[in-house]
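Submission sheet (multi-component)
Chains listed below:
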Amino acid sequence: MSESTSVGIVAPKIAHFSEPLALKSGEILPQYDLVYETYGTLNAERSNAVMICHALSGHHHVAGKYSEDDKYPGWWDNLIGPGRPLDTNKFFVIGLNNLGGCHGSSGPATLNPATGKPWGAAFPVVTVEDWVNSQARLADYLGITQLAAVIGGSLGGMQALQWTLAYPERVRHALVIASAPNLTAQNMAFNEVARQAIITDPEFYGGDYYAQGVVPRRGLRIARMLGHITYLSDDAMGAKFGRKLRDGKIKYGFDVEFEMESYLRYQGDKFAGEFDANTYLRMTRALDYFDPALPFGGDLSAALAGVKAKFLVVSFTSDWRFSPARSREIVKALLDNELSVSYAEVTAAHGHDAFLMPDPHYHAILRTYLGTVLSAADDAARSVADTGVAS
Amino acid sequence: MTSPLNSAEFRQDFAIIAGWMTFGGKVLDLGCGDGSLLQFLRQSLEVRGYGVEKDDANCLAAMGNGVNVIQMDLEAGLSGFEARSFDVVILSQTLQAMRNTEGIVQEMLRVGREAIVTFPNFGYWRHRMQLIAGQMPVSEELPYQWYDTPNVHLCTIKDFDEFCVNHHIQVLERRVITNGEAVHRLPNLLGSLAMYRIRRD
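Outcome: structure written.
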C-alpha cells in the first residue's frame, strides 16, 4: 500500500448563486451561497470529481487542516488524501455545506438579503431533494457535467441516493453508507424529541433568538446528548464507559457521577457552543421527509426504475439507528432493477458512528471499490453516457 | 468459499458451467468466493451477475475483481431476491457446507429459472478407501480434518439423485469429473466432483 497522507492545508471557498432555487416545500430561495472545499485536481476531461455529502452535523470541511496549528482535521480526513481510500492523486474531491447549514452556506443564521437581518425562523425548511438540486448547481459552477461518484454516510447517503434519482446521467457511482431509504417511526421519534428539546427551550424565541442575543443552548445540548446515545451501540458504550464512576464513588446526587454522563455532557456542551439550533431542526426534518418510495406507493424498486449509477452500499452490524436491514432494502431495490451493486455489511462495534472510523476492513472496501472507479471499464461506461447512447 | 481444486480442474469446472449458460444471461453465484467464476463467465459469455458471499476477505477480493458482490449469509435464505429473477443460480462447492441444505436448494429454484449445484462426491473411491482404512477422508477435494471441516452435509451422487427425486427437482444435466476429465462409467465410484443442472419439476 502506498504511503497515505493528509491533503494538508486547505481553505474554504464560497459560490454565490443568484438564480432562484425552487424548493420542494413550494418556497423559493431567491439567491444563496454555498461554501465548499476541494481537494486534488480536476482532470482535463473533468471526469474525476467526487462529491461528499455530509450528515446531520457535517459541513464542507471534510479533509485537511486550515493551519499547521489546527487541532482537528476535517470530519472525514481519514478517508481522503494522497494514498488514502479516496485518493486525491486520482480524484478531485468536493465537500460542501448544505443549504440551511451553519458553517457558511445560506442558512437560518446568515443574513436574509431582503431584510438585512438573520433569516431565523423565516429560512425555508429544506429537503434532501433541495440539497441535491443545489449541489448539482455547484457542480455546474465548477464545470462538472458528470460526477465520478457521490459519497455520503447517514443523511449523506440519502443525498447520494437522491443524486442517482434526480440526475441519473450526472453520476456514475453512488456510495451509500450507513443509510436508509427513509426513516422508521422510531428513528423519526428520536428527531422529534431532539426538536422538542430545542423548541421548548425558553431561549428559542420561535427560532428568532439571534435578535435576542441568546441561543437555545440547553435544548441543543439535550438534542445532541440524545443523538450521541443513538449513534453508539450498547456494546460500544459499555466498552467505553461501562458503569465507571468518575470519582470512584457514588455521591447520592445528580451531578456527573458516571463517566458516561461526563461524556454526554461534554459532547452536548461542545456541540451547543458551535452548532445552530435552527439548522439542527432543519437537518432532522430533511431526514424525516426523505422518502423516495412515497410517490410510488412505498415501492422503492419502482422509485429506482430510472437510476443508472453503480452502487456500493455499506452498513455496520452494530448500527441500530440505520440498521443493516435498511441498507438491504436499498440493495434489493437496486437488484430488482438489475443495477450494478455491491453490498458490504461491516462487522463493527461502534454503532452508527462506525462510518466515520478508519476500520481497516471498511476502508479496504472503500479503497477497493473506488479503485474500480475511473478504471478502463468505468471509462467505457462514461463514453457511453457522454454520447447519450443507451447502454 | 474458496475452491480446494487445483487450477486445471477449476477451469474444467468453469467450462462446464459456462456450457450451461446462455450468452448475456443473468446469474447469481452463491458463495462466490473471490468472484473468479463470475469474472470468467462475464469475460467469456458477457454474463451479467451478482455474487453472494459471507466472508469479509472474499467479498473484498470479489470487489477487487470487479464483481458485484452482496455480503450476506446464505443460511438466512435469499429473501432479498425476487422469484425467477435470475436465469441461473449457481452453488459451486458450497452445498456440503450449508446447514440448511434443503432450504437453500429450494430458494435457488425459486429465484432462478434453473440452478447449478456442484459438490465433492463423498462416494468417490478414494474417499471410500480411506473410510475402509478406518479414517475420515482427507483429499484434495475434501482438504479438512474431521474436527475443522466446514463441511457438515457431505453426500454422494446417489444421495443427491435421490434428494432430487424426493424434492420434485428435475435434473436437466449431470456431469461428473475427476482430475478435470469427464467420468462416464460408475460415476458415484469414479467421480470426484459432481455437477448438476436442475430446475423445478
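Remark: Strands of chain B lie at 26-30, 48-53, 69-71, 86-92, 112-120, 169-178, 181-182, 193-200.
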